[in-house]
Write a structure and sequence with these properties.
The protein is mainly alpha-helical. The protein has helices spanning about 1-10, 20-25, 25-75, 75-85, 90-105, 115-135, 140-170, 175-240. The protein has one domain.
Length: about 240
């Protein structure tokens, strides 16, 4: 066993640098690596895009929430709408803008306060659904890449093993030199598949948890805004 290991280390015909591995790969194995590389580019692009979007939403929401709360506390709906429209990247602003605009559009038109509140609630629900869909954009690609990446690499593994056996048949030899190319081809595609899939799964779980937190924030904002509308409608009814 030790002697065989020494022979393997001393075999000068086997070169394991990446460039030589690429040149020794068959066409099908190169296609597998190309597909995995394309998947990794998509995965990185989605990660960067979601990271920038989520950070912008978080930062703008932190500035937006106290500013719009102050405007509503003083009863200035127009100012609150302007503040919301100035923070278009904030998920909270998107929801609040829809509710305020719908409430303002029905203010003074309907004699039944419940109609105005119900219309505002529906507008808030629609805005939440749209904001949720925008936040989730691209995460389906991450889930697909995370689930299929290892199987694409496994396909490359099978191709590499087949290549190794073909070399044994061609060279009429089962030495390390005959199978090294196919085995290395199999291992590289397997490793590349895992390298692509694991970060995609991690990123998908991370972004999904952040979206759940954003959903809770939007639901709380909608509830608080409905409470504000009810109080404002009650005051208007009493004044009449």
């Amino acid at each position: 066993m030790l002697y065989a290991f020494v022979l393997l280390l001393q075999d000068q015909t086997t070169d394991f640098n990446l460039l030589s591995l690429w040149h020794n790969m068959g066409l099908l194995a190169k296609c597998v690596v190309g597909v995995l590389f394309f998947m990794s580019v998509i995965s990185i692009g989605v990660m960067v895009d979601r990271w920038l979007m989520f950070n912008a939403a978080r930062n703008q929401s932190r500035k937006f929430a106290p500013a719009v709360a102050g405007a509503l506390r003083n009863g200035r709906l127009d100012e609150a709408i302007k503040i919301a429209e100035a923070n278009k990247k904030s998920h909270l602003a998107k929801v609040v803008t829809a509710g305020l605009q719908e409430f303002q559009a029905h203010e003074g038109i309907s004699d039944v306060p419940g109609d105005q509140i119900e219309a505002s609630r529906r507008a808030l629900d629609r805005a939440e659904a749209i904001a949720h869909a925008e936040l989730k954009r691209g995460l389906g690609s991450l889930a697909t890449i995370g689930a299929t990446g290892p199987f694409v690499g496994l396909f490359g593994t099978v191709v590499g093993i087949i290549h190794a056996f073909q070399q044994i048949g061609i060279q009429k030899s089962s030495g390390i030199g005959a199978v090294a190319g196919g085995i290395s081809e199999a291992l590289v595609t397997t490793a590349f598949g895992l390298f692509v899939a694991i970060p995609a799964v991690w990123a998908y779980n991370y972004f999904t948890s952040r979206i759940e937190a954003f959903d809770i924030e939007m639901n709380n904002s909608s509830s608080e805004l409905i409470d504000y509308f009810l109080k404002r409608s009650g005051r208007s009814t009493v004044s009449k």
